[in-house]
Amino acid sequence: MSNYKVKKAVIPAAGLGTRFLPATKAIAKEILPIIDKPAIQFIVEEALAAGIEDILIITGKGKQEIEDHFDANFTLEQNLKAKGKDKLLKLATETSNLNIHYTRQDHPRGLGDAVRHAKAFIGNDPFLLLLGDDIIRGDNLSQRIIELYEEYNQTIIAGVRVDPDQTKNYGILDIQATQKPQVYQILDMVEKPQDHAPSNLAAAGRYILEPQIFEILDTLEPGTTGEVELTDALIEFQKSHPLLAYEYEGEWFEVGDAKGMLKAAIIFALDHPEIKNEFIPYIKQVAKKFETHNEKD
Ligand code: G1P
């Protein structure tokens, strides 16, 4: 049991995954693997390692595989046991029996609306929100912002610096430095700015939110995107509550589309115990091939 105030986490996983079609026509995008582990398992493991005791996953139509993945698979277990495949049995059983709860978003009305579905589960507690498309590699970002919440008791948004030409794809934070390195006061936020981004610090899919956010989410109408945006709720919240940003310096992958997933797979393969020995020489060979190819051009 952790002594920290943040003990609950919410993972919205109701999105349709259209950026990943046709792969997501019959499969939940959260189940697509980075090498051999479903993306959502990385997120759940990060939350548990950060001391989270209960996780709510917000699913929707066609997302049953997520529940199946975090459930026991009796037939598989029997089979692996009979064959004495202990290592595989461990892999098959370590994702069952976790404190994971589920609720469903009835219509895909956006991230803000999905988060609103966590209201009863959260009650009066601060909570960790992890977005399923955002995978980190390096220090446990969730743990870092949970620790910061102990110190500041304020809503915290984790951010990562992006190239200026990428700001149009993210929620961008307008920030002011504080005494503490990597910690900023948030002055404003813009969701996917098309021309003038206030900075290059992008919201990176990890937040510590306070329960008062539900009062705003309950009354929020869909914004210009036609969806209820979490960013709009946070902008409203900021009018009466201070918001902090934490700049994460580890690696961040957005795996909501094929390009991001491929980038993550390559990097994770470099230290995957069963793959790296064969993969590293292979990738060097491929890089060399590209070099010679480019020289010819
Ligand atoms: C969401 C948030 C955005 C954030 C991004 C991180 O956008 O709305 O503020 O920067 O996740 O991946 P989405 O990727 O769902 O469009």
TrEMBL record:
Keyword line: Nucleotidyltransferase, Transferase
Pfam entry (one): NTP_transferase
Alphabetical list of PANTHER family matching this protein: UTP--GLUCOSE-1-PHOSPHATE URIDYLYLTRANSFERASE
One annotated GO molecular function: UTP:glucose-1-phosphate uridylyltransferase activity
InterPro entries assigned to the protein according to its UniProt record, in alphabetical order: GalU_uridylyltTrfase_bac/arc (IPR005771), NTP_transferase_dom (IPR005835), Nucleotide-diphossugar_trans (IPR029044)
GO terms (BP aspect): UDP-alpha-D-glucose metabolic process
Enzyme class: transferase
Reactions the enzyme catalyzes: alpha-D-glucose 1-phosphate + UTP + H(+) = UDP-alpha-D-glucose + diphosphate
Transmembrane segments: none
Protein name: UTP--glucose-1-phosphate uridylyltransferase
Family the entry assigns: Belongs to the UDPGP type 2 family.
Domain of life: Bacteria
SUPFAM superfamilies in the record: Nucleotide-diphospho-sugar transferases
Pathway annotation from the record: Carbohydrate metabolism; nucleotide-sugar metabolism
Domain Nucleotidyl transferase: residue ranges: 8-265
Protein EC: 2.7.7.9
